[in-house]
Amino acid sequence: MNNYSLTSDFAMPTRPKPIVVIGAGGIVEEAHLPAYRKAGWPVLGIYDIQVEKAARLAAAFELKEVYDSMQELIDRVPSYAVFDIAVPASKLADILDQLPHGAHVMMQKPMGETLSDAKKIIEICERKQFTASVNFQMKLIPSIIAAKHLIGQGAIGQLHDMEIRMNIHHPWELWDFLFGLPRMEMLYHSIHYMDMIKYFLGMPKRLYAKTFQHPKQMQLASTRSIIVFDYEEPVRAFVNTNHGHDFGLQHQDSFVKWEGTKGAVKATLGKNINFPKGEADRFEYFLSDNAHDGWVEGPISGAWYPDAFIATMADLQCAIENPASPHATSVKHAYDTMRLVEAAYISNDSGGTTIPD
User: Fold this and answer.
1) Distance in angstroms (rounded) separating the CA atoms of residues 161 and 151
2) Tens digit of pLDDT for each residue in 149-187?
3) In CATH, what is the architecture of 138-307?
């Protein structure tokens, strides 16, 4: 690899603060709590409006406290703890309003259901002087971190092409709150990919988007999307998702690909294939200076679940320790991602160009 280094390392806090969890859904069970256990971070307790769900996770992860109400949680949790909120987006603002001034907050994405919601959330965070993050963790998957490091070293030259392709079968029935929502796929899934493209290429000038229902999933607002970023430069960046590919695993795709003037990188995100069991991740790169080597597979340890959730919480905790840290998951960055989502829905609703006579 010449003088290029390949790493998926990220900054970790020197003195991790304890965590208290609000919400006891599937993502907490499968990702949040396993992440904190793997990192060795203390979790003080858990609260959910369905107390039995919180009690079950408390037993499974050996948590000492199950809070009966938000008020009990706030009364008993020390002010220096991190509030990890994993609830439907429509509930975020109400919970944030209840938290004490100066709290440390991690909230599960999205940042509300509309840009208006996001404005309200960021206003609450600023007024109450929170150190706050939104859990856009896909940009901190180990293979994505490795790609960011490699591209940042100039290994593939000038980045001019970024493609995110998901041709998978997603079991939406695992999240029953998504059924009946007016916005679904772009808000709850492709939002990750929009956030990721922004992380690598910055905010675009314009955005074009169309989101589609699937004839076998008509109870959902949409499950397939195409989103194109326009940078007014020779840069192509787009998201192409189809969650209805129910034809076995052979032709399922789940990858992010970057192309530059001197090489390319491809990260296969295995968790989305055969979800929730998932397949193995892969990280591959091609360097034109070493074209005789062809595509090389890099040894990247870790995966989306739970490692990316360690990375997002580490990003927040580092920002708590040092406000000058990069804080890639901050609510300000998340607000820009919500601007992209809003633009995508405006583009979708305004329709395409009529074919001339």
Assistant:
1) 12
2) 999 999 999 999 999 999 999 999 888 889 999 999 999
3) 2-Layer Sandwich (3.30)
Tokens of 185: 């796929």
SS3 153: coil
- Look at strands 19-22 and 43-47 and give their pairing: parallel
In CATH, what number does 19-136 get? Answer: 3.40.50.720
Closest CA to 225 of 238, 242, 208: 242
Our measurement of the distance from residue 21's CA atom to the centroid of its chain's CA atoms, rounded to an integer in Å, reads 18
With a CB cutoff of 8 Å and minimum separation 6, the contacts of 219 are: 179, 180
Mean pLDDT of 242-257: 96
Ramachandran sector of residue 167 (left: φ over 0; alpha: ψ -120 to 50; beta: rest): beta
| Measured distance CA(218)–CA(220) in Å, rounded | 5
Q: State the first-to-last Cα distance of the chain, in angstroms, to the nearest integer.
A: 55
Question: Tokens 């009364």 identify what position?
Answer: 75
Number of H helices, E strands in the chain: 11, 14
Nearest to 300 by CA among 283, 287, 285, 286: 283
How far is residue 178's CA from residue 345's CA, in Å, rounded to a whole number? Answer: 17
User: What residues does each domain of the chain span?
Assistant: 19-136, 138-307
Do 265 and 156 contact (CB within 8 A), yes or no? yes
What's the pLDDT tens digit per position in 275-308?
888 999 999 999 999 899 999 999 999 999 999 9
Quickly list H helices, 223-330.
309-321
Average pLDDT for residues 129-147, to the nearest whole number?
A: 98
Q: Give pTM, 2 decimals.
A: 0.95
Quick one: 132 exposed, middle or buried, by C-beta within 10 A (0-12, 13-18, 19+)?
Answer: buried
